[in-house]
Amino acid sequence: MAPPTFPPVPISLFYPRRPKTRDNETALRLEALGASRHTTYAQHLWGFTILRTVYTPESDALFPIAIRRLDAWARYSPHQGRFPKYGQAYESKAVTDGEPNEELAKRFYCDVIEDKDRLAGIQSDAEGFAKLRDYFREWLVSVGVQPDLPPNHDDDDDDDDTDDPDLDPALEPNESHDDPRFRSVLVVDEECLRSLIEELPDETPPLRTAVDREEWLKYLRMGKKAWLWMLDTGYMTRDESQFSPPGFRGWFRLGPTELLWAWYEWKSYLHRQSDPSWKVREKDGVPGVWWYYY
To answer: N or C terminus: which one in the chain shows less Cβ crowding within 10 Å?
Structure first.
């Protein structure tokens, strides 16, 4: 299925800043989305590609449910910062103009790749993730993205690139270095699918200030144990001496509402033409399993 078509982000949604009525974090993300000048595939959208690796009769029934819930919670995430804490004291601090948040939510899109012949049974380990990285890169080429081209960016702060010895004038600016969608990929295996089904509710929290502390904590905890794999396909090609933190090899787990944070963090690094240094940590007493945090 082809990505949906959206026009450029209206500048009025992120500039000028309106801290009293709008969410400035959302404004920054819309501005970053509008700065994807060289992206042609899934243009003006944010999100990733999802690879399904579990193919069983049970997963055939559960996978569409999990993807539907994932989509709902990812679209909810731009609204999370609008309603701080709880009670009447915080109702006056709520962000009243939710138009930018809703615009960002509408522009979430993930390609969902189901390929039983090639993806079924690939294990979630170093060897399996290497196979998925190669598969993803093949898929990028199939949609017209060249992942191996150098980062031939324009730079608004430098109007004259003619003296740059690393700039190849024969190459167009490379979208694979302009959009996190073309560098990272999400993976749903059996364990991940189970977490999305068991830990991610159908309904997202209401778009209002929580009535009391109990309700606020309930909303904060909803979906926190659901997760997906994310593979940083560029990081995975690094030499072991460049791993940071030590032992982190470029794949980690993150929750559905963290996708926006990860996309924006990565987008910020790519805009500066530098490799991301992921905020990851081991937890739950399980060494070697890394989790994203922000």
So the answer is: N
Q: What is the CA radius of gyration of the chain?
A: 20
Give per-10-residue mean pLDDT for the chain (294 aa). 90 84 90 77 94 98 98 97 92 92 97 98 96 96 80 45 42 59 96 98 96 96 96 87 84 96 81 67 86 90
Beta carbons within 10 angstroms of residue 86's beta carbon: 18
CA dist 131 and 151 (Å) reads 24
Q: How far apart are CA 95 and CA 98, in angstroms?
A: 7
One-character DSSP codes across 10-29 = PGGGTSS--TTTS-HHHHHH
CB–CB of 145/176 below 8 Å?
A: yes
Count of C-beta atoms within a 10 Å radius of residue 273: 11
| Contacts of 119 by beta carbon, 8 Å cutoff, 6+ apart | 51, 52, 53, 55, 113, 132, 135
Q: How far apart are the C-alpha atoms of 161 and 170, rounded to whole Å?
A: 13
Rounded to whole angstroms, the Cα distance separating 230 from 279 reads 13
Question: Residues with Cβ < 8 Å from 271, sequence gap 6 or more?
Answer: 32, 35
Taking the C-alpha atoms of residue 30 and residue 20, their distance in angstroms, rounded to an integer, is: 18
Structural tokens at position 5: 């078509």
15 token code pair: 């500039």
DSSP 131-184: HHHHHHHHHHHHTT--TTS------TT-S--TT-TT--TTSPP-GGGT-GGGTE
DSSP string, 41-71: TTTT-B--EEEE---SHHHHHHHHHHHHHHH
Residues in the chain: 294
